[in-house]
Amino acid sequence: MDKRYKPMTAIEQMKKRQEVLEMINHNPDWPFYKVARYIRTELHLTLNEMAKITKIAPQTLQKMEQPDSNPTLESMMKLLNTFGLKIMIQSK
Known about the structure:
The chain is 57% helix and 0% strand. It is mostly helical. This is Helix-turn-helix transcriptional regulator. One of its GO terms (molecular function) is DNA binding. Keywords: Plasmid.
């Protein structure tokens, strides 16, 4: 947990995760980098904590959060699957 924030109880953490997932589901047009950053910042996770959870190197996560990033499909799926999300392709 990012030290700048007061630690959340288990119930608060669960509610926060549900809120984060709902927000992402309500915004399917968000680019991947925005989703990656939103998950980490809203859950108050450091890059190292997110790396432990997702099994993705902190440097890779940091790059994924940049607008000009070009992550591999495998990395994107690893991050999303950890939080119960899937990649969806839709036509406009």
